[in-house]
Amino acid sequence: MSNNKLIAIVLLAVGAVLLYFGINATDSPAEQVSEAVTGKYSDNTMLYLVGGGVAAVAGVFMLTKKG
Known about the structure:
Number of strands: 0
Oligomer: single chain
Structural class: mainly alpha
Number of helices: 3
Distance between the termini: 13 Å
Strand content: under 5%
């Protein structure tokens, strides 16, 4: 297995874990109150969601890239 495929799989796994934690964080009572008052999620929750999405997309892109 090449190094690029290994990195892609790791990125995909890290992205999935970050998305899992981000989605769980949005369901917490404190986060729901904060979102209701301010209209947005906390910075940490957004970091999990955005970082996880970017890492997962990068991993998928690297796996599907030819060459």
